[in-house]
Protein backbone atom coordinates (compact mmCIF):
# COMPACT_ATOMS: atom_id res chain seq x y z
CA UNK A 1 0.00 0.00 0.00
CA UNK A 2 1.04 3.56 -0.61
CA UNK A 3 0.22 6.93 0.94
CA UNK A 4 0.36 10.05 -1.21
CA UNK A 5 0.50 13.34 0.67
CA UNK A 6 -0.47 16.52 -1.14
CA UNK A 7 -0.14 20.19 -0.21
CA UNK A 8 -2.48 22.79 -1.68
CA UNK A 9 -1.88 26.43 -2.51
CA UNK A 10 -4.41 29.01 -3.54
CA UNK A 11 -5.04 28.44 -7.21
CA UNK A 12 -8.04 28.76 -9.48
CA UNK A 13 -6.46 26.07 -11.68
CA UNK A 14 -6.50 23.58 -8.79
CA UNK A 15 -10.16 24.17 -8.07
CA UNK A 16 -11.05 23.94 -11.77
CA UNK A 17 -9.17 20.62 -12.12
CA UNK A 18 -10.62 19.04 -8.96
CA UNK A 19 -13.89 17.60 -10.39
CA UNK A 20 -12.08 15.60 -13.11
CA UNK A 21 -9.50 14.47 -10.52
CA UNK A 22 -12.23 13.24 -8.19
CA UNK A 23 -13.83 11.37 -11.10
CA UNK A 24 -10.50 9.62 -11.78
CA UNK A 25 -10.11 8.69 -8.10
CA UNK A 26 -13.69 7.39 -8.00
CA UNK A 27 -12.99 5.14 -11.00
CA UNK A 28 -9.77 3.86 -9.37
CA UNK A 29 -11.72 3.24 -6.16
CA UNK A 30 -14.21 1.11 -8.10
CA UNK A 31 -11.23 -0.90 -9.41
CA UNK A 32 -9.88 -1.37 -5.87
CA UNK A 33 -6.76 0.72 -6.42
CA UNK A 34 -7.78 3.72 -4.29
CA UNK A 35 -8.80 2.78 -0.75
CA UNK A 36 -9.19 6.26 0.75
CA UNK A 37 -8.87 9.80 -0.56
CA UNK A 38 -9.79 13.22 0.64
CA UNK A 39 -8.70 16.67 1.70
CA UNK A 40 -7.39 17.54 5.13
CA UNK A 41 -9.97 19.29 7.30
CA UNK A 42 -8.31 22.69 6.80
CA UNK A 43 -8.02 22.13 3.00
CA UNK A 44 -4.25 22.66 3.15
CA UNK A 45 -3.68 19.34 1.41
CA UNK A 46 -4.96 15.83 0.98
CA UNK A 47 -4.12 12.17 1.55
CA UNK A 48 -4.67 9.32 -0.88
CA UNK A 49 -4.17 5.66 0.06
CA UNK A 50 -3.48 3.34 -2.86
CA UNK A 51 -3.52 -0.44 -2.92
CA UNK A 52 -1.17 -1.09 -5.80
CA UNK A 53 1.82 -3.45 -5.94
CA UNK A 54 4.76 -1.12 -6.51
CA UNK A 55 6.08 2.39 -7.02
CA UNK A 56 5.78 2.03 -10.79
CA UNK A 57 2.00 1.58 -10.42
CA UNK A 58 1.86 4.67 -8.18
CA UNK A 59 3.79 6.67 -10.76
CA UNK A 60 1.44 5.55 -13.54
CA UNK A 61 -1.53 6.82 -11.51
CA UNK A 62 0.20 10.12 -10.80
CA UNK A 63 1.18 10.58 -14.44
CA UNK A 64 -2.28 9.71 -15.77
CA UNK A 65 -4.00 12.40 -13.71
CA UNK A 66 -3.10 15.98 -14.73
CA UNK A 67 -4.29 17.21 -11.32
CA UNK A 68 -0.99 16.18 -9.74
CA UNK A 69 0.87 18.61 -12.03
CA UNK A 70 -1.65 21.44 -11.66
CA UNK A 71 -0.61 24.80 -10.25
CA UNK A 72 -1.49 24.80 -6.55
CA UNK A 73 -1.00 21.04 -6.08
CA UNK A 74 2.28 19.71 -4.71
CA UNK A 75 3.03 16.04 -4.13
CA UNK A 76 4.81 16.29 -0.79
CA UNK A 77 5.51 12.60 -0.25
CA UNK A 78 4.89 9.16 -1.66
CA UNK A 79 5.44 6.54 1.02
CA UNK A 80 5.07 2.81 1.06
CA UNK A 81 2.87 1.75 3.95
CA UNK A 82 2.60 -1.69 5.52
CA UNK A 83 -0.52 -1.64 7.73
CA UNK A 84 -1.03 -4.56 10.08
CA UNK A 85 -4.77 -3.83 10.50
CA UNK A 86 -7.29 -3.31 7.73
From TrEMBL:
What family is reported?
Belongs to the YciI family.
A Pfam family this chain is assigned to: YCII
Coiled coil where? none
Listed name of the protein: YCII-related domain-containing protein
Q: What sequence ranges are listed for the domain YCII-related?
A: 12-82
* Organism (species): Streptacidiphilus jiangxiensis
